[in-house]
């Protein structure tokens, strides 16, 4: 069960990182534009 929990946390962190990677440039572009 511990492995499952760690995997879920890792997955969530990965998704958050992906969202940051996608959204940050959009925010910068909208501010700069």
Characterize the main sheet.
none
User: Which sequence of SSEs, written as H and E, runs from N to C?
Assistant: H
The portion of residues forming beta strands comes to under 5%
Q: Structural class per helix/strand content?
A: mainly alpha
Query: Gap between N and C termini, in Å?
Result: 48 Å
Helix content: over 70%
Number of helices: 1
Taken from the alpha-carbon principal axes, the silhouette is: rod-shaped
Radius of gyration: 14 Å
Mean pLDDT reading: 92
In terms of per-residue confidence, which ranges show pLDDT below 50 for 5 or more consecutive residues? Answer: none
Question: How many β-strand stretches?
Answer: 0
Organism: Microcystis aeruginosa 11-30S32
Transmembrane segments: 13-32
GO molecular function, one term: ATP binding
Protein name: ATP-binding protein
């Amino acid at each position: 069960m511990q492995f499952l929990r760690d995997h879920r946390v890792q997955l969530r962190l990965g998704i958050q990182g992906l969202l940051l990677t996608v959204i940050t440039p959009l925010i910068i572009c909208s501010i700069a534009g």
